[in-house]
Amino acid sequence: MSSRLSLTVLGSGGPIASQGRVSAGYVLSIDGKPRLLVDAGGGSFERIGRSGLDISSLEQILLTHLHIDHTADLSAVIMHLYMGDGKRPIAITGPTGRPGNDAAPENASPQPGVREFVRLLFGTRGAWRYMNTFEGFGITVRDTPSDVSELAIYSIPVDRVLEDLDVSVYAVAVPHGMMPSVAFRVDCGAESVVFSGDISASTASFIALAKNCSMLVHDFALPERDVPHGNLHAKPSAVGYTAQQSAAKRLLLSHLMPPMESELAQSLTIVRREYDGPVEVASDLKAYEIGA
Ligand SMILES: [Zn+2]
Ligand SMILES: [Zn+2]
Question: Do 121 and 127 touch, CB atoms closer than 8 A?
Answer without folding.
Answer: yes
